[in-house]
Amino acid sequence: MRRARPGAVPRTGGTGHARRAMAEKRTLTSVEVGEDAGGEQQPEPGSGTDARGEGRLVSKLWHITLSVSGAEAPLTEVRRGLEQLAHDHPFLLTSRYANDHAEIRYWEEARDLHDAAAVALRLWGEHRSSAKLPPWEIVGLEVIDRETYHQRIAEGYGPPPAAPVGVHPF
Fold this sequence. Notes:
This protein has four helices and seven strands. It is an alpha+beta fold. The chain is globular and about 45 Å long.
């Protein structure tokens, strides 16, 4: 019996090209609400009900800062790749870059921190070929909820709000 992680492309023999083509067709998605090992998930306290009066899980906004780094690449190619990523993933707020590292900041809607982090950790890899991003590795990830983000800003801590929006050099 062969084990694989959920969502992994099955290995069916075939050529490596066919597997790569299948992998490139995958899209970035949020983690679905479903059943866990303990049974059906319950709505969070205060989550309300939907139109049918049934319980529902409420998603929250999470501020994501993703840092990537690697071998030097031409600045024009890094900028073009980040601009394409912003086009492919329209919720990107801002990207800052240099020839060997970049930082991407955006808002993600997810049920909890684990879901938001999982989506964020897939972002760079899943868009690497389509946006022609450098083959850099993720070297940092910060995921904070909206309230914490605004509290930090109000207290003068943390980065200022992401303005201007767009792709900018460091």
